[in-house]
Amino acid sequence: MQFLSDNAASVHPQVWEALHRADCADTPYDTDALSRRLDAAFSDLFGREACALWVATGTAANCLALATLVPPHGALLCHREAHIETDEGGAPGFYLHGAKLVLAPGEGAKLSSGTIRPVLDSIRNDVHQVQVHALSLTQASEYGRCYRPAELAAIAGLACERGLAIHMDGARFGNAVAFLQCTPAEACGAVDALSFGCVKNGAMNAEAVVFFDPALADLARHRRKRAGHLQSKGRYLAAQVLALLEGDLWLANARAANAAAAEIAGAAADRLLHPVEANEVFLRCTAAERQALRARGFGFYDWGPDAARFVTAWDTRPDDARALARALAAL
Amino acid sequence: MQFLSDNAASVHPQVWEALHRADCADTPYDTDALSRRLDAAFSDLFGREACALWVATGTAANCLALATLVPPHGALLCHREAHIETDEGGAPGFYLHGAKLVLAPGEGAKLSSGTIRPVLDSIRNDVHQVQVHALSLTQASEYGRCYRPAELAAIAGLACERGLAIHMDGARFGNAVAFLQCTPAEACGAVDALSFGCVKNGAMNAEAVVFFDPALADLARHRRKRAGHLQSKGRYLAAQVLALLEGDLWLANARAANAAAAEIAGAAADRLLHPVEANEVFLRCTAAERQALRARGFGFYDWGPDAARFVTAWDTRPDDARALARALAAL
Amino acid sequence: MQFLSDNAASVHPQVWEALHRADCADTPYDTDALSRRLDAAFSDLFGREACALWVATGTAANCLALATLVPPHGALLCHREAHIETDEGGAPGFYLHGAKLVLAPGEGAKLSSGTIRPVLDSIRNDVHQVQVHALSLTQASEYGRCYRPAELAAIAGLACERGLAIHMDGARFGNAVAFLQCTPAEACGAVDALSFGCVKNGAMNAEAVVFFDPALADLARHRRKRAGHLQSKGRYLAAQVLALLEGDLWLANARAANAAAAEIAGAAADRLLHPVEANEVFLRCTAAERQALRARGFGFYDWGPDAARFVTAWDTRPDDARALARALAAL
Amino acid sequence: MQFLSDNAASVHPQVWEALHRADCADTPYDTDALSRRLDAAFSDLFGREACALWVATGTAANCLALATLVPPHGALLCHREAHIETDEGGAPGFYLHGAKLVLAPGEGAKLSSGTIRPVLDSIRNDVHQVQVHALSLTQASEYGRCYRPAELAAIAGLACERGLAIHMDGARFGNAVAFLQCTPAEACGAVDALSFGCVKNGAMNAEAVVFFDPALADLARHRRKRAGHLQSKGRYLAAQVLALLEGDLWLANARAANAAAAEIAGAAADRLLHPVEANEVFLRCTAAERQALRARGFGFYDWGPDAARFVTAWDTRPDDARALARALAAL
User: Fold this and answer.
1) Contact C129 B89 (CB under 8 A)
2) B164-189: burial string, b at 16+ Cβ within 10 Å, e else
């Protein structure tokens, strides 16, 4: 019973079906019929003009988006526990040609206008210090916390005031939308580019990076090829993304994962390190307790010496979640 | 009846089966059971210690390999019509941090010690000119020509004399081995790194980059993550590569493509621009002739004003190749 | 009697005086009184709004300018014998983050609209090929040839038509203006950025890079710092540049160098490989003749097996030029 | 009476003399007689084999050194207030091709094995996190604090244990040696590369970057050219560096600056934010007090709302230091 991560979950049956349907001749790269449907599909989803590119990984999605927003001599402001800072192997440094990541604090790995502003204010406006050109937010955050529309609006207001672009790392965007019960547009606010996560949500190896400005998308198309991310059989990636959008499968999958997480959290309310707003549960848990859980067949990561992280996915069996909930309650 | 390219062919049934077998829980990235089999599989194939990494594209395979062989301030020597020079959107410039591509001529888009040596000799050994650190060969070449083992040995001798590493772009390595009727080891010679092509040969979106020095592979692992090419569900890529190696499917597929190309070439021997040694056929062909072929349902690229390129793939139907052969003969 | 190069000539007395005058306290970097005079000085010189930055070398001047005109995923078109291609140690690859140099031919190391156009036309407008964003011209060229205003206008017309920016490497811009007997503005035409050479023309270690768009200059200021080229005692660089502009010393120096070259060329008219339009003289010259010249105390570079290059500078003594002329005539 | 910084001080008379002596013909770049003396001069100074390159700025010195120690996919650990992190305009990101700066705390802007170790331990040894390849220490630190030889030995021990290289930013190395009253070798310890500061210590625009491994120096020579820092009249830079080494002028200059700082500190012992161990004095100082000092003609920087920074230089007049000391005592 695995709760290690959602990043290695299996592939959803409807995605498999879409992959097989794509297994007929078409033109290469992103000129096939499926790839050409992405812009319209995401424009529909967000209710405004959107251009979407498939890529294989969330890291590539994030970095291609950021490379359109931040010049090599500039900086990007993100949370100090953001995935791009801590777990992407320095990919932003590569894709942004050495642009700087300026770090800010914030509860639950979320930024706020209140934590961003003093960091911006601490940077002298001269050539000796690297100037911030964009913000990156993670929806849901590394601790499974969701930005409310009003929080996003406050950040967007600050960004507008300072002339900053906004990127959203939506590796778990579906889980956030499912939790917030708002529209996708409300869950991302006035962002310029969004990494729309699919791999953690039922896909095999396709993510979408969505731009709300065609000029940025055009830049990203050149950068995608340059980064070796323009697959020649792109139709198999487009198929995955479209399958998730079809009938809002992405949302159904995210709801399933969230529900499993909620069940687990409900059984361990007194142990929660963070409110559970998506599909991740961080619990206080001693080494002995963790050992006991593992002995009963539960897989998960330690989170420092006194805590554990449990992640659910679209394919987490309700029985497994229930079993974990019972085991936690019984600790 | 498409002869546009092998790069958008369908996925081989055995690859599909392998993909489905991989659709069960395993650990992420390249820690799964399938990914961990790659080193041994390629060591077996080449009869010497090899380390292999999956990546999604040939461009990424080439560039990750090259980045381990050439420092940012160095140069790479390749044919002036090499794919890395002409068709990878500047990816070598990105992955190699601005290292230079030094170009050399050579018949059939093949380098030879005779064409490499004068280019090397023309570079002054000082800091004002960029020094060559590695060679890149393409097997089979952009014109479907194959390096014979003796040609590779001559180039390797020169490389050794000048302290240069060797990379081989094997996007169509299978086609070369099928033509040369030699071992894979003989078909690559003393290379340091090989891009072992799978996508054009029955895979969906996995290539292998093979290193014959573990230290280079270790570098490439860091660079792969940094380039956003470390997929979290890597098992689906490993599965594709292993499926092609299983029972030498890669070779069977390449032979099928070569056979189709040979049939076409046989019907148009007087039109050949290049001897056909792999799965590409370049023919003299007037605009009117091309129009006539297209009117009969054949898809292919123009190759300048007076020629056409026909590419076969593992899934080219023999009937289609025969039909094209007849049509060419009847022109 | 050295005719090796103008790049190691001595420092002009008026530059020395300016350096000493700068040896008093002022604010650091480019905030001092001298540095702040540069924009106005170059605006006067060119008769249009200009922003000028000092840097230490021509390579830095060229690359900082180019980095404002070409994005990392783009290309720059230059002559295949341009200094940036052949002799700057790969600096454009570094400063432009791997952008490509696309090469074009042209007599006398000069480009023309006629040699540029077919190269541009050969590049498919897709993401697989690197798109050209700017041209770089060298005035005077590597072979000491000067672009006439009409030639510049034709190139500018093509650039405008294709949406390309123009950079001019003016390491020997003074020599070109002296030869062309036109205004500085006419000698550079509609360029976006100009490397205005000073080091070869009497300065110690200051060049100016001139932008005709304040936004580009602003970018370059950030890039200059980032490249470690923002000297804290910048006043000593500004002093050098201003000293050369003062009373058109730059033009007087260039005329002196040109006159010396003309004297040499006049004595060897039948040997000239290129018309002498600046301060470089390329002559057919056998090995025995070169040996004879060296035996008489003349220093110069061989230029391949059958030629020699003689370069004059602002400080070439007329007697030395005359002696060389006589020696050549007597060969 | 300026105490703003030592970075814009005037040029020492002996440096001027050396510059004028260099004003005769010699070969270009670093092939001249003066440049060729640098290796021996620094080998003598440090009592072990050293290779030294001139560059124009401390930023370039630091970054060229670091680029030889840290690959693009690696990280460098430095103090979070190190100059390379806070005030070099992102130059390390540029020169190191996006390598990461990992930050550590430490009193007085000094690292220690005790502050470095936990940061290193917090980095998982996998490809998702960027691995540290080198440390950078600043001697004297941003707060004018000096590393004692025993402290350096402890850090070197840790570096050796973890396989890390060490760079030292010695923009004020002379001031540290003057304070420590030890040999230059003792003041740098087992570093691999040292930025030996000259500009703040009497030079005009030359710094030395010293390598204790010829292979690193060879790399740096290529990188220096590539960064546009190989000046053609390099003899004028070598002359400056050699003039400072001659008769230990560098040490005499540093002692003069330190003495002035000591005089100031002595008069304000109860205000000191940091012990004064070099030529920088950080004092608690209200806005009103600062205004009073400025009214009396003293120039200096505010250091946050309640403090001020006073920097002395080789050319600080003892009378000025005394006047400031008196003014401070009288506050």
Assistant:
1) yes
2) bbbbbbbbbbbbbbbbbeeebbbbbb
**pLDDT exceeds 90 at position A10:** yes
Q: Mean pLDDT of all residues in chain A?
A: 97
Predicted ipTM of the assembly: 0.97
Please report residues of A whose CB lies closer than 8 A to that of D100: 90, 93
C-alpha distance from B71 to closest chain C C-alpha (Å)? 12
Question: Residue A184 is encoded by which pair of tokens?
Answer: 């996708």
- The dihedral formed by the CA atoms of A279, A285, A291 and A293, expressed in degrees to the nearest 10: -40
Residue D103 dihedral angles phi and psi, to the nearest 5°: -105, 145
Question: CA-to-CA distance for D104 and D27, rounded, in angstroms?
Answer: 45
**Residue B204: Cβ-neighbour burial (10 angstroms; 0-12, 13-18, 19+):** buried
**Lookup: tokens for D150:** 């025993």
pLDDT of residue B25: 82
Mode of pairing for the β-strands spanning C132-138 and C75-79: parallel
**Integer Cα distance of C300 and C308 in angstroms:** 7
Section C1-12 average pLDDT: 94
Q: SS3 letters for A252-268? A: HHHHHHHHHHHHHHHCC
Per residue in C128-156, pLDDT tens? Answer: 999 999 999 999 999 999 999 999 999 99
Residue type, C273: L
Residue type at A290 in one-letter notation? R
Q: What is the chain A residue with the closest CA to C227?
A: A73
* Confidence band, pLDDT 50/70/90 cuts, at residue A25: confident
Report the length, in residues, of chain B.
Answer: 331
Instruction: Scan for tokens 């992420």, then name that residue.
Output: B28
- Sequence-distant (6+) residues with CB within 8 A of A226 are B88, B89, B90, B91, B93, B94, C72, C73, C127
Chains in touch with C (3+ beta-carbon pairs under 8 Å) read A, B, D
Nearest CA in chain D to A128: D89
Nearest to D315 by CA among C233, C206, C81, A317: C233
CB-based contacts of B221, cutoff 8 Å, min separation 6 = B30, B53, D127
Give the tokens for residue B132.
């060559």
Query: Token pair 């002869």 is at which residue?
Result: B3
pLDDT score at B51: 98
Handedness of CA C252, C258, C262, C263 (dihedral sign): positive
Contacts of A128 in chain D (CB under 8 A): 87-89
- Cα angle for residues D77, D81, D87 (degrees, 5° grid): 100
**CA dihedral angle for residue A234, residue A239, residue A244, residue A246, rounded to 10 degrees:** 140
Is the pTM higher than 0.80? The answer reads: yes
Nearest to B128 among C89, C96, C99 (CB): C89
Interface test with D, best of A94, A95, A122, A132 (most D CBs within 10 A): A94
Residues 6+ apart with CB under 8 A from D134: D66, D69, D70, D74, D76, D77, D164, D165, D166, D167, D192
Q: How far does CA D118 lie from the centroid of its chain?
A: 26
Which of A10, A60, A199 comes nearest B228 by C-beta?
Answer: A60
Find the closest chain D residue to B219 by CA distance: D73
Test the D interface: residue of C11, C34, C232 with most D CBs within 10 Å: C232
Which chain C residues touch D233 with a CB distance below 8 Å?
7-9, 11, 199, 204-205
pLDDT tens, residue by residue, A179-211 = 999 999 999 999 999 999 999 999 999 999 999
* Enclosing H/E stretch for B24: none
For chain C, the straight-line distance linking the first and the last C-alpha, in angstroms and rounded, comes to 17
Domains of chain D with CATH codes: 13-248 (3.40.640.10), 250-329 (3.90.1150.10)
